[in-house]
Amino acid sequence: MTRVEMDRLRWSCRRGRLENDLVLGRFLDAHAMRLEGERLAAFRALLDYSDDELWALIGGRGDCGDPALEEVVQLLRSC
Predict the structure, then answer these.
(1) What is the phi-psi region of residue 65: left when phi exceeds 0, alpha when psi lies from -120 to 50, beta otherwise?
(2) Is the dihedral of CA 66, 2, 21, 13 positive or negative?
């Protein structure tokens, strides 16, 4: 991923809910170098969720229902 692509992805992580901002930022700091292919696609798909839906997933109160997203959801929960 190029620096410009990473900057755009980081900008996409800016949310209306501070808690999501913090988790998504920490996630990128820890896992950005390993984001490619299906994992990157899954992360981008999660960014399409609303703030409340995303926070429920991160907090373990929601289920995305998509096995392709589960790995990234687990990584987000660890952040």
Answers:
(1) left
(2) negative
3-state secondary structure of 16: coil
**29, amino acid identity:** D
pLDDT tens per residue across all 79 residues of the chain: 788 988 999 999 998 899 999 999 999 999 988 888 999 999 999 999 999 999 999 998 988 788 889 999 999 998 8
Q: 31-63: buried (b, 16+ CB within 10 Å) or exposed (e) per residue? A: beeebeeebbebbeebeebeeeebbebbeeeee
How far is it, in rounded angstroms, from Cα 2 to Cα 72? Answer: 21
Of 31, 17, 19, 18, the residue nearest 9 (C-alpha): 31
pTM to 2 decimals? Answer: 0.86
